[in-house]
Each structure stands twice: as structure tokens, then as C-alpha cells.
Amino acid sequence: MLKDCEAKGFQPINRGYNAVFRPNRLSLGLVVPIENYGWNPVPTLLQHLERIQLAEELGFSAVWLRDVPFNVPSFGDAGQTYDPFVYLGFLAGQTQHIALGVASIILPLRHPAHVAKAAATADVLSGGRLILGVASGDRPEEYPALNLPFGDRGTRFRESFDYIRQMSETTPVFENSYGSPSGGMDMLPKPTAGKLPLLITGGSQQDPAWVAQHGDGWMTYPRNTALQAQVIRDWQGRVTAAGLPAKPVMQPLYIDLAEDPDAAPLPLHLGFRLGTNHLRSHLKALESIGVNHVALNLRFNRAPVETTLNRLADDVLPDFSQ
To answer: 112 is in which domain, residue-wise?
Structure first.
């Protein structure tokens, strides 16, 4: 499923990025944990590996981990609970083809040297399957726990982003608020493609033109289709204005897959309860407006997970496969 191929129109980076993001096409992934835990902020993580391996076997293009350092009660979602980089290393050895994404690492909460080394390690161990989303963070409670200010996270995001980019170079020498590498030392390993694919989430406290210029793609949030189309046109316009090749767009989508394939969409948090026929139509509409990848989230899905994954593979994935 994952191939080392140049996606014409998108600058190729590594195996995962090249396979997941194709111009004028939409691919499908899954948000981890792949389970229903709508009733509780903390998932069970039962059969977490078996479900990721099933997703790979069925042909989903990516799985997406999250960076949730603390279980913040007001946020109401502990994510997959495992540290994303430790989990990436584990999954790199337990899967073969599926892209391993993070949506997204909260850069101001971590030193960029640690992010750069951990991400490059996961990329090498997985054979170039890492896609790294990055964000400035939206949970104020986490910052005091690390003795960090919440208000200047935008500045620290930019500095961290630049530091990580520089670490892909050989013996980089630069000055940065996080440190000033010098003296001929180097950071190893290097990413498989010479750089990490970095997708910026939302605005990340940055000017939209900066996001379009520096990110290798954009992670945005679900909106009604007409508004999402305008938002994507604006993004594409900013990329073009920067004189850069086209860059991909992805979004999440929560679903509760109904047994009736013709069940009409009913709204739920950042998504819908709906049948496979309406899901396929909605995804086709997203593809037509320039969404290149949708990460399906089954947190509120009421049917058994394995049943849902197989139904998606049979009835939806064929329209969005390689």
C-alpha cells in the first residue's frame, strides 16, 4: 500500500507522506485509540495493537496518534494515553506499511532537540512512515505544570519549528532561544528523506501566510462543506502567493456508523452519525474541494469496532484507495 512514489503536484518527502497525500485525491486514516470511549475520557486500549494491524491489513493509509501530556478534566479526552514517541517506536516494529502520524505534537511543551531526535528515530525505524503534525497547544492547564507560560506559545512554536528544521542539516550552526548548536557536533539519526514532513495544525498562533510558507501541509478542522471549500481556497492561494508548489490539506471526522447504509447524517461532535452511502458521498464532496486526507475518529461509534472497520473497508475504502 505504501509506495515510494512522487505525488505529482506535491513535493515528495518520505514514504508515509507520499502515499497518504495525493493531488486531487482523498485517502482515509484512523485516529488512535480505535475504540468507543465516548462515555469516559480515558480509553481502555484493549486490543489497541490488533486494531491498528487490522486497519493496516484492510488498507487504511494512516493511523494518527495524539500528544496529550496530562488528562485535563476540562478537556475531557486523554487520547491514547501512551507517550506518542514511545508508541511510534512500538508501532514501527509492529506494522509494515501503514503511515504513522501524530496530530499533533505540542511544540511549546517540549524541547525541540528532543522532538527532532525522537521523530527522526521513529521515521528511520518505520522505514520513512512518519508524518509529524505540530501545534501550539490549546489546553492552558498544562503549561503551569511544566513551569511554562501559555501566552507566548506562538513565539516558542516558531522557534521550535525552526530548530527542528535545522536539525535535519549536517552539523548545523545557528542561534535560537532554545539553544545555539555549534562546534561541529551533529544530531543523529537523520530523517529518511533528509527532512521530516511537518504539518501545521490550525493557526498555531501564527500568521496564515507563515503557516502556508513553512508547513509541508495543513491540518484543519471539520466545517460545513461550503465554508471548508472557501477555507481551503484561501490556504491554496497563500501557498501560491508564496511561490511554492501545492501542499496537502487534511482534517479529522468523528463518525458513528449506522447499520443502515442509507441512514441520513445526524450531527455529532465534529462529525456525523450516518450510513456508509452518505459517508461516501460526504467524503467525495471533501475530495472535490481539496481535502487530501480524512482521519476518521470512532470515539462515539456504537457498533463493534471490528465490524465498523470491515464495513468501512468493504463499502467506503474502495473509492479512496491507492
So the answer is: 15-320
